[in-house]
Write a structure and sequence with these properties.
Elements (H helix, E strand, L loop, with lengths): L3 H6 L4 H19 L11 H8 L10 H12 L21 H12 L7 H22 L6 E5 L2 H22 L9 E5 L4 H10 L2 E5 L9 H9 L5 E7 L11 H11 L2 E5 L24 E4 L1 H4 L7 E5 L2 H8 L7 H4 L20 H10 L1 H24 L3 E3 L7 E6 L4 H13 L7 E4 L2 E7 L7 H9 L5
Helix pairs in contact: 2-4, 5-14, 6-14, 7-8, 7-12, 9-10, 15-17
Bound molecules: pyridoxal-5'-phosphate.
The site of pyridoxal-5'-phosphate has 14 residues, from helix 7.
């Protein structure tokens, strides 16, 4: 080693070997916890007091730095994989997926191009092809794993607009002053964020009594758009309630309007794996593009969103970056994942899911998803039998929303704080049409009816 810094930081010196063992042991110990403590946030003052001053000219040494993480920083992070973590959308990676996430880091695989990462890209594409098959898209479909659903939705919509521009140019049509998309009132905030980034309008169509977007509502909303409508977005599993839009009707409406059909399945698309729930997704094969977040309900560590296009060439036309130093990549016909979304350098973040699927088989995934849905429906029954509790809606996938009679937001908040402090569960107050409620998002196979009942019972304790 001629580079002295490299000799210290990159070589297999005794100190490095010892640190390797220590850090891997830490990871092993964390993985062996069943479950890990729920933990919770700390104040800025607390963290300043106990974890400041770690960035120094000479370094603390790995042992000391790990100690700060173990004793101060990690306990200040909620364990999102704890079975009592039920807020937002939890995460519940399989053992194989977590282990392989370590390998992805250890091997420095570059996932942006075929030239550099063909093996990894091939494996990721096997997973995308499997997802496409479940959804019913043709073999020629393809896409990329991106950081999250927000980026997935944005990238799909950028492709949709680019395609609309190309079509209008080809047909010698004028380009509109404003571009627009239609989504439902129950759709995810990331679509509004995407519209802001793209400087386009988003029209929020009404939902039916069950919270679903229907074909008629899309056509009605389209009347509000004078010109420049280029996409309709359906949600296959709303984040608030886990309700699947009428994908068939919405797809037909999009076709009638002659626009791109995108399906946001970030949370709920995984539900298609449950044979009993599959019928809810009827018509999903009409999609021009879809996303699903394996970091939500396909048991994969953060951060991972699968983005799939019916015609990936359209995405490459919209997203491929050109530059002198990139010519070697872009002048070839090889499959470069970077070309299919707003990204360039990328971690091969689909590999942990690939390894886990290859390890356990798709059948294990079907069972795990089906069991989550079963648990959701069972706890909904328990709730509907309690006099003081009321379901806000019948659950469809694995999200259960309910109210407690007479409770104000402050009551939910107090209860939420208390059960987090006790390490029992993490259930932040949610709301529907201005009324506060409690919401369980169930995607962790370790979350069972017994624990959920215990959490419900805790509402009556002081
Ligand atoms: C979570 C979610 C998103 C955003 O995904 P991120 O991975 O958090 O960026 C988009 N749409 C739906 C329906 C979601 O549930």
């Amino acid at each position: 080693m001629t580079n002295k810094a490299a000799a210290k930081m990159h070589s297999s010196s005794q100190a490095t070997i010892a640190l390797r063992e220590e850090v891997l042991q830490y990871a092993k110990d964390r993985m062996a916890m069943d479950p890990a403590p729920l933990d919770g946030p700390q104040s800025l003052e607390y963290l300043r007091k106990h974890a400041s001053g770690t960035i120094t000219e000479t370094g603390l040494g790995g042992h000391k730095a790990l100690k700060v993480f173990d004793e101060v920083l990690a306990p200040a992070c909620i364990s999102t994989d704890h079975p009592g973590y039920l807020s937002f959308i939890p995460v519940a990676p399989t053992e194989a997926a977590t282990l392989f996430d370590l390998v992805v880091s250890a091997t420095s695989v570059y996932g942006g191009s075929w030239l550099e990462g063909s093996g990894a890209v091939f494996a990721e594409n096997e997973v995308l092809a499997w997802l496409a098959k479940e959804v019913g898209l043709p073999k020629t479909s393809g896409g990329v794993f991106v950081q999250g659903g927000s980026l997935g939705n944005l990238s799909a919509l950028v492709t949709a607009r680019h395609t609309a521009i190309q079509e209008r140019k080809k047909n010698k049509k004028k380009l509109p002053k404003r571009w627009s998309i239609i989504a439902s009132k129950e759709s995810h905030s990331s679509l509004k964020a995407a519209a802001r980034v793209m400087d386009i309008d988003i029209v929020l169509a009404d939902v039916d009594d069950e919270g679903r977007l229907r074909g008629k509502a899309v056509l009605k909303a389209a009347k509000k758009v004078k010109d420049g409508l280029f996409a309709v977005v359906a949600t296959s599993g709303t984040t608030n309630f886990g309700i699947v839009d009428r994908l068939d009707e919405v797809g037909s409406a999009a076709k009638k309007l002659g626009v791109w059909y995108h399906i946001d399945g970030a949370y709920g698309l995984a539900g298609i794996l449950d044979p009993k729930s599959r019928h809810l997704f009827k018509g999903i094969s009409k999609a021009d593009s879809f996303i699903v977040d394996p970091h939500k309900w396909l048991f994969t560590p953060f951060d991972c969103c699968a983005l799939v296009y019916r015609k990936p060439k359209l995405a490459a036309a919209a997203h491929t970056q050109h530059g002198e130093y990139l010519d070697a990549l872009t002048d070839s016909d090889e499959y470069n994942p970077s070309d299919y979304a707003y990204n360039l350098t990328r971690r091969a973040r689909g590999l942990p899911l690939w390894f886990s699927l290859a390890t356990y088989g798709v059948g294990a995934y079907r069972k795990a998803v089906a069991e989550n849905i079963e648990v959701a429906h069972k706890i909904a029954q328990v709730i509907s039998k309690r006099k003081d509790l009321k379901l806000v809606r019948e659950p469809e996938l694995s999200i259960v929303v309910f109210e407690k009679e007479g409770w104000q937001l402050a009551d939910y908040q107090k209860w939420s704080d208390r059960i987090l402090a006790e390490g029992l569960g993490f259930v932040v107050p949610s709301s529907h049409r201005g009324k506060p409620n409690a919401r369980f998002a169930i995607v962790n196979p370790r979350t069972d009816v017994k624990l959920l009942t215990q959490i419900i019972d805790s509402m009556d304790e002081k």
